[in-house]
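FIELD: query
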Amino acid sequence: MAYGVIHRFPGGTQSQYEASVGAVHPAGGGLPAGQITHLAGPTDDGWIIVAVHDSRESWEQFRDGTLMPTMQAGIDGGFAGPPDETTFEVVTGA
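FIELD: result
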């Protein structure tokens, strides 16, 4: 079952997003293995990222193997702290 992840970065900016996604996504603008959709944009209070993975397991593999280690090491110009996170099983999508 597909698995959705919403990350909200209060005070986040587009330049922080670009630095962060550049550090954790494959070169050339592709998506990580198992990620089928990636959306991002500004909100009234910062930046939001919505990603859908083909399964909860592929999300956890990306989170634990790439995202968290890279963010913990620090990303020059990236988001200053962890996001507010919401996850959900995707029941329907178009």
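FIELD: remark
The chain has one domain: 3-89.
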